[in-house]
Amino acid sequence: MTGDGALRINKYLSERGLCSRREADAWIAAGRVTVNGAVATLGTKVAAADEVCVDGAPLGAPTHHVYIALHKPVGVECTTDQRVAHNIVDFVAHSERVFPIGRLDKDSEGLILLTNDGDIVNLLLRAEHQHEKEYVVTVDRPLTDEFLKAMAAGVEILGTMTSPCQVERVSKNVFRIVLTQGLNRQIRRMCDVFGYTVRRLIRVRFVNVRLEGLEAGRWRNLTRAELAALLPERFGRDRRSPGPETP
After folding, report:
1. Across residues 42-67, what is the average pLDDT?
2. How many helices (H) and strands (E) does the chain have?
3. Cα separation, 141 vs 240, whole angstroms
4. Which residue, of 15, 33, 37, 227, is most buried by count of CB atoms within 10 Å of its CB?
5. Predicted local confidence at residue 61, as pLDDT
6. Average pLDDT over the chain, rounded to whole?
7. Of 4, 50, 81, 105, which one is the catalytic site residue?
8. Known catalytic residue: 105?
9. HSE of 99, CA atoms in CB hemisphere, 13 A
10. Which of 79, 142, 113 is nearest to 203 (CA)?
11. What integer pLDDT is reported at residue 4 of this predicted model?
12. Distance (Å, whole) CA 192 – CA 103
């Protein structure tokens, strides 16, 4: 389990398309991963000839990378733990083992990306990259100008001040908001500060990928152009993306 070509176990799992490195660390800490029959630790290294198992099941042959956009309905949990009812992995039922990039709350809906390429997760989720996520939010009572301005300026939640963001009125009870953060239940918590309750929250855009045209519960592969704009360092030249497969 050491020597030339050996990889740390968390990197090995992410490169095999099973999960992100952070999720791999959680699996390892929980004792779910073994290498040649021994329970792995965070420092375990894996060579090509080693047998790696997750929850007692040996890993299959390496997969090709897939990148998909899902219109997640309300009620689906953004977890790869298939012991959880209504988990996103079983819902998508992809032929490859995919996992979500980031999350949407169970009570929220809209666009979420999934992949089996663990190396892109940090590129897309690191706060310093300032990747935009756009939402349309319906609340329980009419909006005021003061509320919209205060939301845009930043709100104190979870012991921190949210970053300034774009907010605009759509209709009497509906507004559009563009965030570059991903705090836990951020929009709902921001609204709560001003006495508003979110009735519907739908993500309509992640950077350049849009929800438009994708029905609830359906998914599609990202196009070559979308991947090139989303991850130019990986797909900006002649790299190919998956074909237009749909469920």
Report:
1. 82
2. 8, 17
3. 47
4. 33
5. 58
6. 88
7. 105
8. yes
9. 23
10. 113
11. 46
12. 20
Q: CATH 3.10.290.10 in the chain, residues?
A: 7-58
CA distance 19 to 210: 24
pLDDT value of residue 62: 56
Of 138, 126, 133, the residue nearest 104 (C-alpha): 133
CATH of the domain spanning 7-58: 3.10.290.10
Task: Count Cβ neighbours within 10 Å for each residue of 13-31 and write b for 16 or more, e otherwise.
Answer: bbbbbbbbbebbbebbeee
In this structure, CATH architecture of domain 67-126+208-235: 2-Layer Sandwich (3.30)
Token couple for 160: 């921190």
The tokens describing 169, both together, are 């009125």
Segments of the chain assigned to CATH 3.30.70.580 = 67-126+208-235
Give 112-160 pLDDT, tens digit per residue. Answer: 999 988 778 878 887 667 899 999 999 999 999 999 999 999 999 999 9
CA 101/CA 214 separation, integer angstroms:
18
Residue 133 is encoded by which pair of tokens?
A: 């996520």
Question: 189 phi and psi, to 5 degrees?
Answer: -65, -40
Nearest one of 75, 188, 185 to 138, comparing CA atoms: 188
Q: Which of 94, 151, 162, 83 is nearest to 127 (CA)?
A: 162
Tell if the pTM clears 0.90, that is, is over it: no
- CATH class, range 132-206: alpha beta
Tell me where in the chain the CATH 3.30.70.1560 domain(s) lie: 132-206
